[in-house]
Design goal:
By secondary structure, the chain is α+β, with helices and mostly antiparallel strands. It contains 11 helices and 16 strands. Among the domains are: 112 residues, no CATH class; 71 residues, no CATH class; 148 residues, Heat Shock Protein 90 (2-Layer Sandwich). A hairpin with a 5-residue loop joins strand 5 and strand 6. The chain is rod-shaped and about 165 Å long. The N terminus is likely disordered.
Length: 486
C-alpha cells in the first residue's frame, strides 16, 4: 500500500510538471504569433512610407512641403521603422537616413562628412537591413535648391501687373528688378537704378514682403533599405511571465513540502507518544508480577528466567521511553560513541545467528553531545536491517569510528556484506513508509535519519552499495551549544 502511494505521488508530480510545461509552451507560441502579426502589419506600411519619403521634396507648395516634412519627421521619431535610401548608380552614396542615429541623419541632411565610426555604423546598419528584408526600388526627388529671393512692394490690386519687385541672389544682392517702368538687369543698370532697387529690398524686407526662390528637384532612381525594430517588450513578456510563474510554483512547492514534513513529524510524534502510553500499562503490570515471582520462588532456574525476563522488560521500558521522545526535544549530554556501540553489540551477541559476526574498531575520538538512548536506537535499526539482508553463509557487520579534525566531527562507518540495495531504491531508502520487506513498515531508516539529522544536527548518507554489501557514513558534530546538556 505504501509503495503504491509512493508511485502515485511520483505520477502526480510528473503530471503536474508536464502540464505546466505544456501550458507554458502554448503561451509562448501564442505570444510569438501575436508579435509576428504586429511585425507583418508594420512591414505592410513600409511601401507607403517609402513613397511619402521620396515625394515630399517634389511638392511645389513650399509652405505645405515644410509642414509635411516636419510632420513626417515626428512620425519617424515615434516609429519602429528605420530606413536608408541609396542611389542606384552609386550604391555607396547615401541619400537619406532615418531611425538609425540622429547625429548621422543631421549630418547627411546638411551634407556634412561622416567620421570613420559613423560610416562604419551606417554601413553595418545597411548590411543588416539588406540581410533581414527585401530592398525596395524607387524614384526619389532631390532636395529643392534655393537660388535667391524676391522682394516686392505694395500695389493696388487693380494694377497687380505694375507691382514693383526685386530679384536677389542668396547674398541679397539685386540681379534684376522692376521699380517703375520696364524690367532692368544688373548688367544694364546705372548707379541710381541700383540704389532704387536696394531701397526696395530694405523696405520690403522690413515689412516681410519677400519669398524664397527654389527650383524644382530632379528625380533619380535609388533603393529603399529598411528595418523594423523588434517588439522586445512583447518578446520578453512571455519569458518574464514564465519566470514569475516558475518562481511562484517553486516557492509554493517548497512551502507545501515543508508543511507536509511538519504534518508528518506531528503525526509521527503523536503516534510514538501514543505507542509509549499504550505500552506503559502492561509493562508496569509485568514488573509487578516479576516482584511476586522473586519473593515466592528461590529455585535457581526460576532465578535465571527471572533475570532474563527482567532484562527484556527493562529493554522494553527503554524502547517505550524512546518512542516517548519522538516529537519532543530530547535531553542530551556528553556521550562516548564507542561505549554506545559496544553496548549495542553486546545486546545482539546473544540474539543473532551463529553465522553472523559483529566487529568494531575505534580510533581515538572526543565525546559528542547526544542522547544515548536514541543513538543506541540508530545502531539497533541499522543492525536489524543488515540481518534481514544477510543471506550468505557468513554474515559480517563492521562498525568503526574515527575523528575528522578539519570538520570537527566524529565519523562512524557502518558496513555489512549483505545483498546490497537495488539501484532504483537507493534514493528512496530514507523515505517514510518505503520498504522492500513483505511485512515491513518502512520506518527503521526513516527514524535513523530523523534521529541523526533532526535531533543531533548530524548527517547520514549511503556511501556505496553492491551485491557485496552496503556502507553508510554517519557524521556527528563535536562542539555544540550546551544549553540543553544535563
Amino acid at each position: 500500500m505504501l509503495q503504491v502511494r509512493y508511485k502515485t505521488t511520483n505520477f502526480l508530480f510528473i503530471y503536474f510538471i508536464a502540464g505546466i510545461l505544456v501550458l507554458l509552451s502554448v503561451f509562448v507560441y501564442y505570444t510569438s504569433r501575436i508579435v509576428k502579426r504586429l511585425d507583418e502589419s508594420q512591414k505592410a506600411q513600409v511601401p507607403y512610407l517609402a513613397d511619402l519619403a521620396v515625394v515630399l521634396p517634389s511638392i511645389k507648395d513650399v509652405q505645405l512641403g515644410i509642414r509635411l516634412d516636419k510632420d513626417f519627421k515626428k512620425i519617424w521619431e515615434n516609429s519602429r521603422l528605420s530606413f536608408i535610401i541609396t542611389d542606384r548608380q552609386n550604391p555607396g552614396q547615401i541619400i537619406k537616413v532615418r531611425g538609425v542615429d540622429k547625429e548621422i541623419e543631421v549630418k547627411i541632411d546638411k551634407g556634412i562628412p561622416l567620421n570613420q565610426a559613423e560610416q562604419q555604423k551606417l554601413r553595418k546598419a545597411l548590411e543588416e537591413m539588406k540581410r533581414k528584408v527585401e530592398t525596395i526600388s524607387l524614384e526619389y526627388g532631390e532636395d529643392r535648391v534655393l537660388v535667391g529671393y524676391m522682394y516686392y512692394g505694395d500695389v493696388n490690386p487693380d494694377k497687380i501687373n505694375m507691382m514693383p519687385f526685386v530679384i536677389t541672389d542668396l547674398q541679397q544682392q539685386p540681379v534684376g528688378w522692376r521699380v517703375w517702368g520696364d524690367y532692368i538687369r544688373i548688367e544694364d543698370a546705372n548707379e541710381r537704378q541700383l540704389n532704387q532697387a536696394r531701397a526696395l529690398v530694405r523696405e520690403a524686407s522690413a515689412k516681410g514682403r519677400f519669398s524664397a526662390i527654389q527650383i524644382n528637384p530632379k528625380f533619380r532612381r535609388g533603393y529603399f533599405h529598411y528595418d523594423v525594430a523588434t517588439h522586445y517588450d512583447l518578446m520578453l513578456m512571455p519569458y518574464i511571465q514564465i519566470a514569475s510563474i516558475t518562481i511562484f510554483l517553486v516557492i509554493g512547492l517548497l512551502v507545501y513540502q515543508k508543511s507536509k514534513a511538519n504534518e508528518q513529524a506531528a503525526i509521527w510524534g503523536g503516534l510514538a507518544r501514543e505507542t509509549a502510553h499504550q505500552l506503559g500499562t502492561p509493562i508496569s503490570s509485568l514488573m509487578g508480577w516479576l516482584e511476586v515471582l522473586e519473593n515466592r520462588n528461590n529455585d535457581s532456574d526460576m532465578t535465571n528466567i527471572y533475570a532474563e525476563m527482567q532484562g527484556d522488560l527493562a529493554r522494553l521500558r527503554k524502547v517505550t521511553s524512546r518512542f516517548g521522545r519522538i516529537g519532543a526535544k530530547p535531553k542530551r549530554g556528553l556521550v562516548d560513541i564507542a561505549n554506545i556501540i559496544y553496548e549495542v553489540i553486546f545486546y545482539f551477541q546473544k540474539r543473532i545467528p551463529p553465522k553472523v559476526e559483529i566487529i568494531s574498531q575505534h580510533k581515538e575520538a572526543p565525546k559528542v553531545i547526544a542522547n544515548e538512548d536514541l543513538l543506541q536506537w540508530v545502531f539497533e535499526n541499522l543492525i536489524k536491517n543488515s540481518l534481514d539482508a544477510l543471506n550468505k553463509k557468513r554474515g559480517l557487520i563492521r562498525i568503526d569510528t574515527s575523528f575528522d579534525p578539519k570538520r570537527n566531527q566524529v565519523v562512524i562507518t557502518y558496513k555489512d556484506n549483505g545483498k546490497g540495495i537495488s539501484k532504483k531504491d537507493r534514493k528512496k531508502i530514507f523515505a517514510p513508509g518505503y520498504t522492500t520487506k513483505k511485512h515491513g513498515w518502512g520506518l527503521g531508516l526513516t527514524l535513523v535519519k530523523r534521529i541523526i539529522e533532526d535531533y543531533h544536527d548530524g548527517k547520514i548518507r549511503l556511501v556505496e552499495t553492491s551485491p557485496r554489501g552496503t556502507t553508510f557514513e554517519i557524521r556527528l558534530p563535536v562542539e555544540k551549544v550546551t544549553e540543553d546538556i544535563e
